[in-house]
Amino acid sequence: MTQAGATEDGAPTGRAARELLTRAGLLLETARTVLADHTRAVDAVHTALKPLLDSLVRRELAAIPASRLKDVTEGRLRLGAVEQAGFTTVGQVHEANRYELRQIPGVGAQTADQVLAAAGQIAHAVRDTVAVRIDVDAPDDATTALVVALHRLVAAGPDVRRAVDAAGRLVGRLESLLAAAGPARGRLRMLFTGREARSRALEAVAEVRTAVAEAQGRELPLLFGQVSVDLLRAPESELAAWVDFELRSAEYYSLLAEMSGTGPDRDAAEGFLPSGMADRVRGLRLDDAHLRVSLRGYQSFGARFALAQKRVILGDEMGLGKTVQAIAALAHLSARGETHFLVVCPASVLINWAREIRARSTLRTLPVHGPERQSAFGEWRSGGGVALTTFDALHTLPAAADCGLRPGMLVVDEAHYVKNPATRRSQAVSGWTQHTERVLFLTGTPMENRVEEFRSLVRHLQPELAPSIHTTHGAAGSLAFRRAVAPAYLRRNQVDVLTELPALVQVDEWEEFSPGDLDAYREAVGAGHFMRMRRAAYARPGTSTKLNRLRELVAEAADNGLKVVVFSYFREVLHTVRQALESPVFGPLSGNLPAARRQRLIDDFGAVDGHAVLLSQVQAGGVGLNMQSASVVIICEPQIKPTMEHQAVARVHRMGQIRTVQVHRLLAADSVDERMLDILARKERLFDLYARRSDVAETTPDAVDVSDGALARRIVEEEQLRLATRTAGTAATTMPAAPTGTDGTARETVPES
């Protein structure tokens, strides 16, 4: 053995070993640091959470009569003397001490202990049922402390979980290895070490070298350092933490549920799967190395279910994030070496898939549709990534059997599109399912109501299971149906798993213009007409991609028995929507309807048993009307005044609403919609930081608005330049003159058409 060399098996010795072990020691210390920083951040949340939970528990216990203490001891406890002494509620007993109770005549040490123990058991049970809700309209010191503590973890992002998991494994591995490798730090120590210990030291050095190389390959030192910095970074101010909470409250509530242990019931979150199957799914560790988002518990389980069962239908109710669960499954397979994935979906959601995959993972996307789809398919076949194609394009591409590859996973969105095996789209999908090991079908339609349709989908996935599915399974109820078809089907409902979230989920639905849409849009841009640009996506209903997506959202809501409110600034757009829908439709509500008539329309809408649609101008629906019987909101175009949109949504999402409200904003890519959002997003954040916090802004939102007269002209000019339709010397728009308010900001007029 040389002083600075290596053994026969390549393990470094002498100086090389010392340098390696020093690097490993520094890596170990960095891993311990990130764990300690995370522990401090978590402890801060628990410290802030405790008084809030204690207050909720006290309130609940104060409403429980002391006589309920007998139930805990099956009637053996004698409470007469305690109640006569004024302890009439469980709360009063729980806050008393042993000495205080023993002062009551007739109460001995044993009775006092039993009474306190029974009260403690009830308090423990109550704590498991209470949940902290954060009220942005009534912040106090205790809630603010909680929001600030949560902000540190939320702002650090999904890298925290990856860093903590990796650091925990690395600490467990390196601590024992460095202890065993200690003698290898010096030649003399090795000389005076026994043969067996010397052999263990050399083996440990070799393993340390492997561990350090793997950590560097995964860039763990950089990850640990960044996460530690993020966990130590405080918000700029309490106000900034509150604003961040408003912008992404779902992430705060998800973390809060995890910290407080008040998440959804596990059986419900796992779709009431048989225990053996649920255990197997739980045992699969999800690799999130290529994921850019933190999953909620039920979402992680859904992704693991797809991976463990390999060929399944994910049928979660709309609004629960089926897309992100599919992306998580793809990201896991990518981390394990798979290179090619295929997503088939309706044309109306293809752009959403592209945006979601880019935003929530590091996976490469390739849209394979349109005139260039054959060359795009060839690029995917040679270079890998996630190919995104439509049902109508799939059958024009090379068949799975002919293209010489098997995707790591095939995802079929809106899978009910392939329920009829005789159709061309169904046959094209079937060709790929037969040549792909892992297949994930997504649908928000409750399958227990469509047993024959479900059986048709299962034939694509697990043909051997299809004959055992009978209509009696659906007739027995949703729970019985899910258990009978568990090997191929997972469905969770909002009411079961969104207990950790606020009652508002917002989704941006991005669409690409159809050729007809684009023609109408170009005409409006060429004319410099801002209002026509905003409604151009509905000018040609027969080819409107926004209108098509709106129909799909309404149909899915109908399948789930949900009521829908559709908002638009333009009565012309609402008329087009009404013509396109087959559902029971009420309205439109507009500013020129008398108040009594408007309320009668809303009452009639609410009285419908099950699904119905209410149409409303956004400015009419935003004032003095309550629409809480609805749980799905569709906004046809972005509003130039964000306050107007906020107020309209608030008509649905308000006290008395018992379901989670889903807000879907229909947006056209590369259009006035995208330009408006880019400009307004910057201004709205300033509005949130300052104006929304003032009493004046609360009572008169128009007093501090983010719109101005130049915004429309700026957008028109930018679009004219982009589309090269602007004529020389023409820069003015043909907007109607906009009256101004007392603050001088421009106000859009309501078009009569």
Describe this structure in words.
This protein has 753 residues and is of the alpha/beta class. The protein folds into 4 domains: 140 residues, no CATH class; 78 residues, DNA polymerase, domain 1 (Orthogonal Bundle), CATH 1.10.150.20; 227 residues, 3-Layer(aba) Sandwich (Rossmann fold); 167 residues, Rossmann fold, CATH 3.40.50. Helix content is 53%, strand content 8%. It contains 35 helices and 13 strands. The strands form 2 sheets. It has a 7-stranded parallel sheet with strand order 3-4-2-5-6-1-7, with helices on both faces. Strands 8-13-12-9-11-10 form a 6-stranded parallel sheet, sandwiched between helices. Strand 5, helix 21 and strand 6 form a beta-alpha-beta unit. Helix 1 packs antiparallel against helix 7, helix 1 packs across helix 10 and helix 1 packs parallel to helix 11. The longest helix is centred in the N-terminal third of the chain and has 49 residues. It starts with 13 loop residues before the first helix and ends in a 30-residue tail after the last helix.
